[in-house]
Amino acid sequence: MNKGLGENWILLRGLARESAHWGDFVPLLQATFPDAKMTTLDLPGAGRFYQDESPKTITAIADNVRNHALELGLLQQPVTLLALSLGGMVAWEWLHNYPDDICGASLISTSFAGLNPFYERLRWQIYGKFFGLLMQQGTYKRELAIIQLVNNNRERDGQIAKDWEQIQKLRPVSPKNMYRQMLAAATYQPSPEKPTQPVLLLNAKGDRLVSPSCSEAIQNKWHLELRTHPWAGHDMTVDDGDWVATRLKDWIASSRM
């Protein structure tokens, strides 16, 4: 039995994204765990820290996020991490360096250097589109292009693009910080030790940004639990938040047995 699992959540987003990009997934997760505490934290260089300089290593980013959690009094009881993409690397580093902080973690659509080649960690088929959208003129068009790359459910593209456009206008992530975060992700070498805490991996067959094989490689190396969405894209919390919440509920129920 893993005491405290699913009672005190910290959510971490990925590259050049912030807490507001979770959208309606946070209230959905809260409804799934009505008695739990939910906190979204921003990485340095994004969100409330968009004017700060992002470190160039995952270790330094993880230390920064942990210090913020300490300042907010979030670590008085062990936390359950839910982390997407680059945030998953931060969660893994935190898990290993400060194991007493954390009672479990779920990593969504993440990848580690050394386990998969670079052209799977950022799929070679989308190189042109990915670097093209970084040069896209107009915030709305750029955010819409990002959505159409990381998501597969097209029903709410317009509204989500408007929401993300507003986020970027209020708290713009600088090209410099995006580069520093990309460098941190590209060079991150994870600890080879298997965590003692339960870890759930989530990936999606329709991920066009990061190959699903990256999560499979993590699963195979450390013999972790993996659940795969049949059609969602890289950000499955936007594509099918209900599926993610259900997988988390099942994982926590089985881990408590």
TrEMBL record:
Hydrolase as UniProt keyword: yes
Looking up Pfam families in the UniProt record yields:
Hydrolase_4 (PF12146)
**Which keywords does the record carry?**
Hydrolase
Serine aminopeptidase S33 domain: residues covered:
74-237
Q: Which domain of life is it from?
A: Bacteria
Coiled-coil-forming residues are none
Q: Which GO terms describe its molecular function?
A: hydrolase activity
- Ribosomal protein found in the keyword field: no
Which PANTHER family does the record match to this protein?
MONOACYLGLYCEROL LIPASE
Which protein is depicted?
A: Alpha/beta hydrolase fold protein
